Amino acid sequence: MKKFGKFVCFTAVTTAIVGGITYLMKKDKLKVEIEQEDENGDTFEEDLKDLFDDFKEEAKEKAGEVKEAVKDKVNCAADTAQDVAGGLKEKACDAKEDLQENMEEMMDKANAVKGQVKAAAREIKETVTETAEDVSEEIRD
């Protein structure tokens, strides 16, 4: 059992040493990568600010593109609405003209009927008058 305890202790110490070495190697590698990225002299904060500024410019460009697209769609919709309104106005004018023509025809027909009614009324009046005179003469005789 003593040998097994020594083995476990040796394994634990070896694992700790390997883990420490790996940590130090990664830390140095990361430090080297950061130093290589910052050869132009920028600090991390400056790099972050540049990255944010780039993002901000891209967002403005995209917003401008979206704004132009929306403006184009609105103009297209306005043109379509004007075309539809123009078509409706034209149809309304045509309907108005048709209605006026129909009203004129109806007025002409009404006047013709009115003339016929007046003529018929005159004839009836004359007939009634003649009949009344005939009856009156017969009564006198």
Briefly note the structural class of the backbone.
mainly alpha
Question: Number of helix segments?
Answer: 2
Please provide the ordered H/E string of secondary-structure elements. HH
Helix content: over 70%
- Computed over alpha carbons, the radius of gyration is 54 Å
Percentage of residues in strands = under 5%
Q: Averaged pLDDT, please? A: 81
Stretches with pLDDT under 50, minimum 5 residues: none
Anisotropy-based shape: rod-shaped
Please give the largest β-sheet.
none
Give the distance, in angstroms, between the N- and C-terminal Cα atoms.
171 Å
Tally of strands: 0
Write up what this structure looks like.
By secondary structure, the protein is mainly α. It has helices spanning 2-37, 44-140. The longest helix is centred in the middle third of the chain and has 97 residues, at 44-140.
How is the secondary structure organized here?
Blueprint: H1 2-37, H2 44-140
Features:
mainly alpha; single chain; 0% strand; rod-shaped; 141 residues
Structure in a nutshell:
With 141 residues, this protein is an all-alpha fold. Helices cover 94% and strands 0% of the residues.
